[in-house]
Write a structure and sequence with these properties.
This protein has a domain of 48 residues. It has two helices and no strands. The protein has 76 residues and is mainly alpha-helical. Helix 1 packs antiparallel against helix 2.
C-alpha cells in the first residue's frame, strides 16, 4: 500500500477535494430527539412528562444554536 499525498489528484483528470473544517461532535441532536419523544409521550400520559420533554427540547435547541453561532462567529 502506498502513502499518497491527500492533496495530489488521485487520477489524471480528477481534482482533489478541498480541505474542509468539520464541526465538533455534539449531543444536542440526541437531546432534541429525546425531548421530542418525551413531549409525544407526555401528550399520551401526563403533563409532567410533556413539560420535561419541552424543557429538554428547548435546552438542547438553545445549546445547539449557541454552538452554531459560536462556530460561525469564529470563522469570520
Amino acid at each position: 500500500m502506498t502513502t499518497d499525498d491527500p492533496l495530489k489528484p488521485p487520477r489524471p483528470g480528477w481534482q482533489a477535494l478541498p480541505r474542509e473544517n468539520l464541526p465538533q461532535p455534539t449531543y444536542f441532536p440526541s437531546g432534541l430527539a429525546m425531548g421530542t419523544t418525551f413531549m409525544f409521550w407526555g401528550v399520551v400520559t401526563s403533563l409532567v412528562i410533556f413539560l420535561v420533554g419541552l424543557a429538554l427540547f428547548l435546552a438542547s435547541l438553545a445549546g445547539w444554536l449557541h454552538e452554531i453561532h459560536l462556530e460561525r462567529k469564529s470563522r469570520k
